[in-house]
Amino acid sequence: MTKSSVKPTVIANEMARSDSIISLEKPENYGTIFPEGFGSVNLNKESVEVKGMELEKHLTLLHTVSLAVGQIIGSGIFISPNVVIQSVGSMGISLIVWALGGLLSLCGALCFGELGAMYPKSGGECQYNKITYGRMVAFVNLWVLLIVYSMGTAVIALTFSSYLLSLFIDEAYPQFELVKKVVAAAAVILVIGICIYGTRLGVWVQNGFTVMKILALIFLVVIAGVFLGQGNLENISSGFAGSNLDVSDWSGAMLSSLWAYNGWTSINIIASEVKNPEKNLPRALIITGLSVTITYVIVNVAYHALLSTDQLIHSESIAVLAGETFFAQYGSGAVKFGRYFFAVSVALSTFGSLLSTVLSASRLPYAGALEKMMPGCFGLVSKRNKTPVTSLIFMGMTSFVCIWPSNIGSLIQYVGFLSWIFWGLCFLAVIVLRFKMPDTPRPFRVPLFIPVIAILTSLYLIVGPTITSPLTSGMWVLVTLVAVPVYYGYVDKERKCDVWMRKLTGKLTHYLEAGV
Fold first, then answer.
1. From the centroid of its chain, how far is CA 292?
2. Of all residues in the chain, what percent carry a pLDDT higher than 90?
3. Cα–Cα distance measured from residue 184 to residue 160, given in angstroms and rounded to the nearest whole number
4. Residue 55's pLDDT band (cuts 50, 70, 90)
5. E-strand spans in 92-160?
6. Fewest CB within 10 A of the end CB: N or C in the chain?
7. Closest residue by Cα to residue 353 from 476, 219, 450, 212
8. What is the per-residue pLDDT for 509?
């Protein structure tokens, strides 16, 4: 590939003169990522001083667990329970779905634990799919992950905004939706700023919100216990009454509960920043998986103790309604306290989840740049704070865009469908790599029945939505497949589709100009 003779001297030399702005993580085989005309920049020693900057290994086991727990326990536990109960119809099956979702997530996490301990590099599932299936699959995976994380960040930001605004603005206000999106966008910008300042700051802020959200959930469980102790057993005694036994309807419930568990892959995405990853990665996954599963089941029991099935089905802010229900017996002042306490708690919880999501997602463009799958600018790291600045800004921009046209319920379904396609490939990779790379050290190994269970779960969660919503599923499959010609046209060294892509672009331009 011929390098461009044009040098970005103005920007690059300014970067080189600064001791605090940007340096470049440069692997030995680093070069031009995309051809001219696709936003590529050719960086060389004449235009910028290149130094081997690496993301700092500073995350202990406690920090890693806190980051994962903070990412998992966020908006999901405050959004998903009513969707689950709508699909299954009873408390009994609802609790089974939540317990099953936790165990399935733990199986997936254990698979990732083996892969992460064997290959502790930033990038998570993209790296695993690369070594198993090749660069093209890894690029498509990265393509989808960027979409998934952008949509997921938008969901969390909108949830944060909705709960926060419930303290000040009634949902009947005509401009409520617009204000909600403005606040959500502002939250994304704030989180990007925190993460740019430093990963350590982001982790410590996340630690604080993790503690607060756990305390809020504990308080919810305590008041539910008091409520039951007062003899209010009507709701909890409903058991399996009203159960929907149509298993085909359970896929929506499973996707919703698994959305609440979503985040268990965040540890592996930042694997290169974890101290002693061979031991700490699997430990963190197991601790996180079991802790969150037990917590979610107990919290759902608390919800069902305080609220009837009908209230759970029709409530958009179940934590606030649960607080109001308990404190109603103590007067209007107590009801106000319950409403404000849980509204603030949910807002803080989702803000913490937003922070950890952005922190993890920003490592994807960074890893893609180092693997020559994305423009080299995403491999830039702040010298002062050792954070991937350009990657953070990019993820902030894409999440910002997803906020405005978004519907939270639809986004959750899209995220789940796309995520489980490539998670299934990763689960299969555990088995494939046992034969493909049998001599590679594996500090942590899972029994083979675990990836088999995870693979079957993936198939169910992919086939189910495809049958029930073929048009929507087909649309997202097409969005995924667009990455294939992009890879061969602009990323692959041979650029096999480059001529075809240029002709197609020329024809589209001609037709668009003619239409104008």
1. 16
2. 13
3. 7
4. low
5. none
6. C
7. 212
8. 64
